[in-house]
Specification:
alpha+beta
Length: 117
């Protein structure tokens, strides 16, 4: 990953629809007890935000794009004063997706959280 990639918003979905990516993002948020979680799928030179979960069902694609654009690696890693956690979902040695958690509190994540993801 070189950091020069385009962040693509999620595919449009009907109002109130919660597909599998959204369900996963909600589960990651609950599992990590963080403010925001997302599921993204990297491509050759882009990454598509597939699911985003925030407080009270809040969706903030701008925040999602900002968080992803600062990444230089798909992880697993804890970055940004331990406010951001990134874990790849692998299949056959290929990255199929990336799970991302964010907290506004410094020190929110440890390497133990990577094991949990």
């Amino acid at each position: 990953m070189n950091g020069n990639f385009k962040v693509i918003e999620p595919y449009p979905t009907p109002e109130g629809y919660r597909g599998p990516y959204q369900e996963i993002a909600m589960y990651v948020r609950q599992l990590l007890q963080c403010e925001y979680a997302m599921v993204a799928v990297p491509g050759k030179d882009s990454i598509r935000i597939q699911g985003f979960a925030g407080p009270n069902g809040e969706k903030d694609e701008n925040l999602a794009a900002d968080l992803i654009s600062g990444l230089r690696d798909w992880g697993p890693l804890v970055v940004g004063d331990a406010r951001l956690i990134v874990a790849p979902v692998l299949c056959g040695g290929h990255i199929m997706g990336v799970l991302i958690g964010y907290s506004s509190q410094p020190g929110a994540f440890t390497t133990g959280h990577l094991d949990t993801l």
